[in-house]
Design a protein that fits this description.
- By secondary structure, this protein is of the alpha+beta class.
- The chain has one domain.
- Helices cover about 25% and strands about 25% of the residues.
- It contains 2 helices and 5 strands, in the order E-E-E-E-H-E-H.
- The strands form 2 sheets. Strands 1-2-3 form a 3-stranded antiparallel beta sheet, with helices on one face. Strands 4-5 form a two-stranded antiparallel ribbon.
- Strand 2 and strand 3 form a beta hairpin.
- The longest helix has 11 residues.
- The two termini are about 25 Å apart.
Length: about 80
Amino acid sequence: MNIQFVGIDPDTDDDGCPTVWVDTDTSDLLIQSYKADDAATARCDALSPARAPIPPAETVIRIPRRMIPIIRKACDELDPGVR
């Protein structure tokens, strides 16, 4: 497993630190962020195209908008030919 740090929320404080890594072996993004609240999770669950509840091993996370450039950077590192 080859995990590389990409970036951390520029507004990080002591209470949370949304962070993005990439696994260059699998081309997966690894994201630490805030768990969505119950209302947002229920709405996402209701809108699921699979028409099935969110499995217990999965959750809905909320990624701050200010993290979009970091996520783009992570995607570019995994697939530099796509722009």
